[in-house]
Amino acid sequence: MSDCVAVSGFIARRPVDADFAVLAQMRRDSRLQNMLLSVPERTDDDAVREWIARRSSAPGGLFRVIAETDGAAVGFIQISRVDEPPKAYGGIALAEGYRGRGVGAVALSALLMIAREELGLISLLAEIRTDNPSSIRLHERFGYRRVGVMDEHFLGTDGQRHDVLLMQRRFED
C-alpha cells in the first residue's frame, strides 16, 4: 500500500509528528467529534497520541492525513472494519478552516481511490448524522446511495439522540 496519494493539490499520507497540533485540535473539537459519531473519553496529549497510533496501526483499516503540498495537515481520512467480502466503513474529517471550501471533495476522492485501488474493496459504507446535509450531499455527489436511517442511533455530548443515515458506495468492476 502506498504511503502517499496526491489528489488535486493535496496529499493523503501517513501521519507525522508535525501533524499533532492539527489532529489534537480536531480530536478536542467536541462539535466535530459529535458529527463524526465519536465521544472521546480523554483528549489530553497522551490520549491523542494513543488515538493516532491506534488508528494508524489498526488491522483491517487505514488512517491518512490530508495535507497541503507543503505538508500542512488539514484533516484526515479513515477506513475501518474491513470485512469479507471486502467492504468497510470510511470517513473524512477536516480542520475548521478547511470546511466548505471544496477540500471535502478532495478528501473523499482520495478515500474512494484508496478503498478501491489499494484495498480492493467492493463497497464502502458511511454513517452520517441526518442533520449534516452538506456531508450527505457530498457523498451523494460521489456515488453513495442512501441505505436507511438508524433512528436515535447516536447519543451526543449534548445529551440528545441523533438519527444517522447509512450510505453505501459500491465499486463496479
Automatic annotation (TrEMBL):
CDD domains: NAT_SF. GO terms for molecular function: acyltransferase activity, transferring groups other than amino-acyl groups. InterPro entries: Acyl_CoA_acyltransferase, GNAT_dom, N-acetyltransferase. Residues 11-172 form the N-acetyltransferase domain. It comes from the Bacteria. Pfam families: Acetyltransf_3 (PF13302). Keywords: Transferase. This is Acetyltransferase.
